[in-house]
Automatic annotation (TrEMBL):
GO-annotated biological processes: osmosensory signaling via phosphorelay pathway
Alphabetized PROSITE patterns for the sequence: HIS_KIN
Organism from which the protein derives: Bowmanella pacifica
Name used for this protein in its record: histidine kinase
GO molecular function per UniProt: phosphorelay response regulator activity; phosphorelay sensor kinase activity; protein kinase activator activity
Length: 500
């Protein structure tokens, strides 16, 4: 359960979400049903309209066929009775049309069972009638009028009666079918109207339900917003109180750091003073009583002076370690190339004593603490000179290349970074100790073998981290070590972004 939200409110939210989900499903279901009913009604009405159109076309074609026969027969009778060829014009005109009417009638696709058979019977009778009409006209033209009139009285009357009967049966079937279609159309239209009324009513109910739920949701939202504002105000007050407490704590911590720094300075000064006296009186005693003291006493004095010197060095290194962040200078333009050569000049005697060969790349100019950069290079080069292998010459290479650094929080890094590598051919060490050597007081070799307090590399790491960079090392026993330093071109930008 989310902190600060009552269980009752969570239950109400879940109930509201469930109701909205059910309303959505109901709307989808009703819409789908209404759509299906509307489509069914539409398809049903369209089918009935298509059937009405088809039966109308059937009745029209039957009328055309029957009218053609009637007009042709009338023209034929007029010609036979008057012997005037002017009456043959309707007959000849219908004789031309009857073939088209017969083809159209045969192309009819009636939906009434048995109607196609009745239409075919009518067409056969019409063909017979026109054959008889043509034959009697030909007889009349050959001046066989009496025979032609006799043929008309005997044959045409029977065919006309049969054609009329076939026509009436076909038309009656189509008329009855059309009446049934009109009845179906009225039923379908009434059903469509009912579907529309039902859909409208359901839609209105759903709209009212949605409106009610919207009002309820708005009311709950206002209540939740009011509660959220109250919680935000409470949280803001707590944040303000916490910020004030943190400010007091930060001020107290800063004061404590200043006191610790002052204590470290005073302690180092106070500790150095008795150490200097121990060394001074030890030297005096050694010089004044050297002839009177035996070898054991002289050895004790030498050990005492050496321990005092080591303790003095340790105190100085601890003070330097504590001052990396507290007494660091502001970042400014620092020519690393110049700084490195100054360090080489400072270590000139040590370089000559170890007979070391140096290969130095050109280094860039960056924004950094020049004093600490000098200390960084001096510690690393001093380490390389100190841990020289006794059986081979020492080679120290300083290489530099522009590279990409870590991305700043929330954006792509536009800074330029440099990787500086200091490689030596000294005694090296096991890679498993690569992180350990950057811790204070960590030594991989005995005090009698190599001098040092174990603070130098810890100081190097603190300097590099203060500049927003990283330091690491790789090494193999007997094959030397490589210290890799990653530094930004503008350390101020990295440390500012990192503190946001």
């Amino acid at each position: 359960m989310a902190p600060g939200i009552p269980t009752t409110e969570l239950n109400e939210d879940m109930q509201n979400k469930t109701i909205w989900w059910l309303i959505g499903v109901l709307i989808l279901a009703i819409t789908s049903v209404n759509t299906l009913l509307a489509l069914r009604s539409s398809n049903e009405i369209a089918g009935i309209q298509k059937s009405l159109t088809n039966t109308g076309e059937v009745m029209m074609l039957l009328d055309e066929l029957y009218i053609s026969v009637t007009l042709a027969e009338s023209g034929q009778r007029g010609y036979l009775l008057t012997d005037n060829e002017r009456f043959l014009a309707p007959y000849q005109e219908q004789l031309q049309k009857v073939h088209t009417s017969i083809n159209n009638a045969r192309a009819i696709s009636s939906e009434i069972q048995g109607q196609q058979y009745r239409i075919e019977q009518l067409i056969d009778l019409v063909n017979q009638q026109f054959s008889e009409l043509s034959r009697t006209v030909e007889l009349a033209k050959k001046e066989k009028d009496l025979l032609a009139v006799h043929e008309v009285k005997v044959g045409n009357g029977v065919l006309s009666t049969q054609i009329g009967e076939a026509y009436r049966k076909a038309m009656l079937a189509e008329s009855d079918f059309r009446e049934s279609l009109y009845l179906d159309f009225a039923i379908a239209q009434h059903r469509a109207d009912n579907t529309l009324y039902l859909s409208s009513a359901l839609t209105l109910v759903l709209l009212l339900a949605v409106f009610y739920l919207a009002r309820l949701n708005l009311k709950n939202e206002r209540r939740h917003r009011s509660q959220l504002e109250a919680q935000n105000n409470t949280l803001a007050q707590k944040v303000e109180e916490r910020t004030f407490a943190l400010k007091i704590y930060a001020d107290e911590l800063a004061r404590s750091n200043r006191e610790l720094e002052e204590f470290a300075f005073v302690a180092s000064h106070d500790l150095q003073e008795p150490l200097r006296k121990i060394q001074a009186f030890g030297d005096r005693l050694l010089n004044a009583q050297q002839q009177q003291l035996d070898e054991t006493s002289l050895d004790y004095l030498a050990r005492m002076n050496k321990a005092a010197q080591r303790m003095s060095k340790l105190i100085s290194d601890l003070l330097a370690f504590s001052r990396v962040t507290t007494r660091g200078k502001e970042f400014s333009s620092c020519d690393l190339n110049k700084t490195l050569h100054q360090v080489v000049d400072d270590l000139e005697i040590s370089i000559e004593d170890s007979q070391a060969q140096l290969e130095l790349d050109s280094l860039p100019t960056i924004k950094a603490d020049t004093t600490q950069m000098h200390q960084l290079f001096q510690n690393l080069l001093s380490n390389a000179l100190k841990f020289k292998a006794p059986d081979r010459p020492l080679m120290v290479k300083v290489r530099c290349q522009q590279t990409t650094g870590p991305t700043l929080p929330g954006e792509e890094s536009g800074l330029i970074w440099y990787r500086i590598e200091i490689h030596d051919t000294g005694i090296g060490f096991e890679q498993q100790y690569a992180d350990k050597i950057f811790m204070p007081f960590q030594r991989l070799h005995g005090r009698n073998s190599y001098e040092g307090t174990g603070i130098g590399l810890a100081v190097c790491r603190r300097i590099v981290e203060r500049h927003g960079g990283k330091i690491s090392t790789t090494s193999q026993p007997g094959k030397g070590s490589t210290f890799s330093i990653l530094l930004p071109q503008d350390s101020a930008m990295v440390t500012i972004e990192g503190n946001k």
